[in-house]
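Reviewer 2 asked us to include a model.

Predict the structure of this chain.
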Amino acid sequence: MASSPCGNGNFDSGLEIKTRSVEQTLIPLVSQITTLINHKDKPKKSERTLAAIHRVGQAVSVAVGRFVAVGEAIATENQELKDEMGQACFEARRAGDAIAQLTDVASALPSQADGRVTVFSDRTGMVKAARLLLSSVTKVLVLADRIVIKQIITSRNKVLVTLDHLERVSTFQEFVQIFSQFGNEMVEFAHLTGDRQNDLKDEKKKARMAAARAVLEKCTMMLLTASKTCLRHPDCESARINKDGVFHRMRCALEQVIDIVTEARSCGENQLLPASIYNGIKDFKSSVECLRENLYSSSPQSMGSQLEALVERTEDFTDSAYTSHEQRQAILSVCQLARQDTQQLMNAWIEAQSVHAKEATEDMEVAILKTCQSIGDLRREVHKVAVGRATDLLKVHGEQLPLRALKTAGAEGNLEAVAEYSRKLTEQKEQLVETCRLLCHVSGTEPLEITCVHAEETFHVIGPQIISAAQTLALHPSSKIAKENLEVFCEAWESQLCDMALLLREINDVFEGRRGDKRPYLSLPRPGVSVTPHILMNIEQTSMAKLGLELRLLSSDLDTEVEKWEAQEHDIVRQSQSLASMAYNMYLFTRGEGLLKTTLDLFHQAEVCASGLQLCSALRTFSTQLVDEEKSVVMTELEKLVALCQQLQMGAKTPVQGKTATFQKVLILRLCVLLCIFFVCVCTIVQNESVTCFCPSLNSKNSNGFGLKSLEQHMAGLNLLESK
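Predicted model (structure tokens):
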């Protein structure tokens, strides 16, 4: 070919991928086109390899074509994105067609010397087509992601409008009617934001989203009882204060969610966390250890100032009225030792600079080790104080004495007792707020710092709300609604104490080098409540498009891998291909295509697909022929495969009905994709012949657990190829 069918089209390839779903959709595509490009150095192919190359090229073209069709449909339904989406779809289709043409057997020329066919004579064309395809498909995905953000904003706006109506209602009948609408809108908002939270790549944003959604979850029930209490006792000032506090907190949480998804200035990196001792220690230790590499990158005076700023942060511990004398003295002693060791280091550093030393002297090395040790002692000391304080508080507050006393005093109408126990609760609140601040200092990660700040804010807000609810009950001791309202706020307090105990465990895990499992916050909807059909349709349309692209490319990966096996009738080869074919037929069903005609056929196919346990048996038998290291890898993947097959069996047999049931069942296709990925990985591991690997990324020592290099590595490879 004299020129690339793709032309020279310049397209934006610098798009930032912020969600896992976009990234995971691109990985199989990147793997496939990298496979094709890596063949350019060996233009002469056997008939078998040539057929495999042709099949991969056609698979890419077909999968992209179907994916683009969905993108074009989205563009039609969203006029504000029509031009951008249309251009991206046009470029993607053009690039897919170019790759199909470049891998077309009919366009290849036989060599006069040995009769073998030569392909990829236009190497530059393949690289350009690949880059254009990646950038355009990424653009389609990113534009589709904007629609998800738009859905969240639209859902938030509906919630805000209804929230305003709820705040102004004057009758119970009107309140019940509007609150029912509000509940449905919150369910929809919870589903959308929950999916977004799980999809975010940035852990700090995920933590902020989790905190905001936790507020909305707890405030929904508070809003119900606080509003009812205010309607029953419209002239009660404490009831009004209680209700206003809930509405204000809900609005703030809703705005925080939108700030996160739209990356507004008030959110993200621009929203600074309190300066923590942990981060100060980490930065200071890094500065000290950098002296081994460069004696002249900073000055001794700057290091002294850095240490003093760190020591100043410990005042949150030493100035606290709740810190014991022994704990205070221990922290001050460690700080003094750190000052002495740092001063020795600075002296040795100045001396080394005076003789123009090129590297750290022996005296400096000793001083560096002593400084790092003393700064590590400081971290252990403040961690011990913060965690010990939190543990003791949780034990004391676990008895809930002030809360029980407030409930009793309120029910008796005893305003004096309510005031007395309110003071005790306020003292507990201040202790908990300060303890959360100390935990933030030693949390060890930014997401945990965010969770500490959220806990601090929650105790700070709920404490006064419990007191106002108790005052309302004391003024109206016979009011069942006022009593119910106080119970709800007390339950929120107890719930936050439970969250604090889990947070404490996670902080300990980080400190000890373990990463505890993150506890996801519960979403607003309860079991049995589903998203409204039109939202579900939009979400499923996008999900199915991504799934189709992934599934088709992964199936092609599997076909390519088993092509290299000499024994084509081997059980592993036969069963792997069969399962991949079934998974793709299940996807085609969602498009109204393929061999499956009814939902009954779909569910039956899922049950058959779950019989992949037979493949596990064949692989287990084959693993006995492998050496210890290879056998260990295969057995690890087998355990994952067995677990997936069992999940698939359970999903296929779950009794559900209606349109929602269809969508729930279709989700088992995601498990089929995982099965395909494991097939590729397992087939790669158990190759019993030394052959030239068709897809280098599958055999790379640097590949990840799925046998695929990271997206960044693939993109770097494409940049290098284009530069050549």
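The beta strands are 44-45, 109-110, 117-118. The first helix runs from residue 20 to 37. We have added this to the supplementary material.
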